[in-house]
TrEMBL record, chains A, B:
The entry's keywords: FAD, Flavoprotein, Membrane, NAD, Oxidoreductase, Transit peptide, Transmembrane, Transmembrane helix
TM region positions: 374-391
UniProt xrefs under Pfam families: NDH2_C (PF22366), Pyr_redox_2 (PF07992)
Protein name stated in the entry: NADH:ubiquinone reductase (non-electrogenic)
External alternative NADH-ubiquinone oxidoreductase-like C-terminal domain location: 351-406
Top-level taxon: Bacteria
UniProt-listed Enzyme Commission number(s): 1.6.5.9
UniProt cross-references to InterPro entries, sorted A to Z: FAD/NAD-bd_sf (IPR036188), FAD/NAD-binding_dom (IPR023753), NDH-2 (IPR045024), NDH2-like_C (IPR054585)
Length: 435, 435
């Protein structure tokens, strides 16, 4: 693809929280913007877990990137994956051919980190994208279906055991959501099952849940979870999982057909950059201006970036707020460069952390203000609703939540393209049954 | 699966319009009910075309069968496909093992009929289920994406040509919906494309669109379509389609990468029944009581059934109303049999036909009352909204429609699990890209 305009071309790889902000901020700038993403939609990752448990339809937490920028004259979009960056020639190698750039924003985000354990990677379910959340939903629902027709007690128990590895916000929210499924829905949908048969375990190698939260928040979260019937297992390190039994260091093990892995992430980095540019967690090291060391025209933002300065020796946390603010900042720095002005150093404005456990139960750490329970839950809902792209999505999600709140039986729980168990090991490909 | 209850077991194959009614009607009867379906949801087929064009999310026109019957004490559900009926032993051979029945309701519906043309079957898209409607959506959207980056004029024209074969309600509604996509959305989402580049053709071998409708209705539909820019080609018989060019008898041909086939249906009949039981269109012949000739305990209803009597020598049309009324009637006849009473003959109460072409444009043939245009469109919307299962679905669809009406840019148009073109020929299996 050639840039035939007289303006420099800014190519953004990734339409996540960070990429969106760059494109928006450059709307009226004297540049052309080209966004590449392997999907034609933005994913609102904070609600993926509700797609996984069948509370929300996938399309409510996704928004068409074309539609979002419809009307922005300098914006173009292509579905493409970038395989390599040729930084000497300012050229990308992509699934739709070579693409030249003048400025490059790497906003490729992160994926699940199995820390090199191939067996766990094969059998445990990740949940970092909508297709992965749907696969997880189908695993859960298909295992409930199988449990109904399984008479062997051990097999049935393994089908009805859910082990969540990693007690960060994703693990905590999934645990809460699964506990609500058990407490309120299980016996309505599956009269052959007993509530007590379904077990939810939340496991972490740290001594607390919600590691980066305040102690008050973390303790409250653990109490909420325990009260809902989740077994919280801390200081536990996973040793292996073969699809049937998860084993921990020290000898404990749980027979389960459902292991969900949210114990770590790593940056998604295209080929072509020097390995010297990479930090812990496969993140791309940048300077304070968010540019890669040694490059004038390549920026990295969000989950894939590690801005290493004296003040931020480990970079920033992998959360949406960092990506959003870095996206705005990278765009601002491009505008500075175009005007021949010096770039500015990025400073993160931490607005706090939120996590929900269930109905009326959430944790809000907002600087010195800390809430646990109903008020935190209202804040959580409000912040998530206003952050969703699209008026339709806001309304549809709101209706789903109101419906669930009053009926205690919300959600759709459909298996629209499930998979065969023998294909589970190919889950990274896409594992649908014939239809 | 064994029936350990003291009541006879009624097994219903299929959770479509007919199957649902049987189960509902038997709620308080002295029977056990077991419903089998290959999906865990009911599909509201009349709105499939809106899923295909990205106007509605799939989950709004589907409803969990378990949730629908949650609370009905004598109801059980299993995801299963029935491969064969052993009518001598009252036994079904299914994907989850053998299942014994006392009464059997065959409500398996219909699938696309390619009339034995393997080449067309391989390359043309059907649209009879949600996965098929999603595949069609992905084909449409992926071809628009490909057109944007295709410079060869002929290739681009073929990607942007849509040929709908069969001008029944499905073809007409799809044609209208695609015309609206072109007229209102195309250049907003794809600024690189021109409205005039996209062509929509509606083809039928009959001399009219909406064959079974009144002449007024049929003529109005044709006029609406033509006014929206659809080329209506009548008296045209398809000869071949090789994925690139569709050829008609008489020499005409159109280069197109998008052929959608709604030119015929045929019943989905499990093995094991005598071929003598089959009528034209692979439908199972029944007597006036909806029972198969020679069987006291096997009924067939809806699209898969052809009730052949002196008054109905060809059976009934394959529409939702027939399935619904036959479902209620079959349940009633089972109750009669249980009480030792004679069965009753089914009489169809034809409430009329509806089809929509687009915004403010629909056709309503309601006996002597015939409407075309805005009022018919209001009737169409009202009837479809109240017929949707689930309060949530009603609201979500309504919001989508209101949004589309006022913005002229509704719909989500997401490719959540698309497919690779080279896999198109395997579309009946699983045609998704890795994700």
């Amino acid at each position: 693809m050639d840039n035939t305009s007289k303006f420099p071309l800014v190519v953004i790889i990734g339409g996540g929280f960070g990429g969106l902000e760059v494109a928006k901020k450059l709307a009226d700038a004297p540049v052309e913007v080209l966004m590449l993403d392997k999907h034609n939609y933005h994913t609102f990752q904070p609600l993926l877990y509700q797609v996984a448990t069948g509370s929300l339809e996938a399309e409510s937490i996704a928004f068409s990137l074309r539609k979002n920028f419809s009307g922005q004259k300098n914006f173009r979009f292509r579905i493409a994956e970038v395989s390599a960056i040729d930084s000497e020639n300012n050229l990308l190698d992509t699934t739709i051919g070579p693409i030249a750039y003048d400025y490059l924003i790497i906003a490729t985000g992160s994926t699940t980190n199995f820390f090199g354990n191939k067996e766990i990677e094969r059998f445990a379910m990740p949940m970092k994208s909508i297709p992965e959340a749907l696969n997880l939903r189908y695993l859960i629902l298909q295992n409930l279906e199988e449990a109904v027709r399984t008479t062997n007690k051990d097999d049935r128990a393994a089908l009805l055991s859910f082990v969540l590895v990693g007690a960060g916000p994703t693990g905590v929210e999934l645990a809460g959501s699964l506990a609500e499924l058990r407490n309120h829905i299980l016996t309505k949908d599956y009269p052959e099952l007993q509530k007590e048969e379904m077990k939810v375990y939340l496991v972490d190698f740290l001594p607390k849940v919600l590691g980066p939260f305040s102690d008050e928040g973390s303790n409250a979260a653990k109490e909420f979870l325990t009260g809902m019937g989740v077994e919280v297992l801390l200081n536990m390190k996973v040793e292996s999982y073969d699809g049937k039994e998860i084993k921990f260091e020290g000898g404990k093990s749980i027979k389960t057909r459902n292991v969900i892995w949210s114990a770590g992430v790593m940056g998604v980095v295209p080929e072509g950059l020097s390995k010297d540019n990479l930090e812990r967690g496969n993140r791309i090291r940048t300077d304070g201006s968010l540019r890669l060391n040694g490059y004038n025209n390549i920026f990295a933002i969000g989950d894939v970036a590690a801005m290493i300065t004296d003040k931020t020796p480990k970079g920033h946390p992998g959360v949406a707020q960092v990506a959003i603010q870095q996206g705005q900042h990278a765009a601002k720095n491009i505008l500075h460069i175009l005007k021949g002005q010096p770039t500015e150093v990025f400073e993160y404005n931490d607005k706090g952390s939120l996590a929900t456990i269930g109905r009326n139960k959430a944790i809000a750490d907002l600087g010195k203000l800390k809430f646990q329970g109903f008020f935190a839950w209202l804040i959580w809902m409000f912040v998530h609703l206003i952050s969703l792209l699209g008026f339709r999505n806001k309304i549809v999600v709101f209706i789903n939540w109101v419906g669930s709140y009053f009926s205690n039986n919300g959600g759709t729980r459909l298996i629209i393209r499930g998979f065969k168990r023998e294909e589970l090991s190919k889950k990274d490909e896409q594992v649908s049954v014939p239809d």
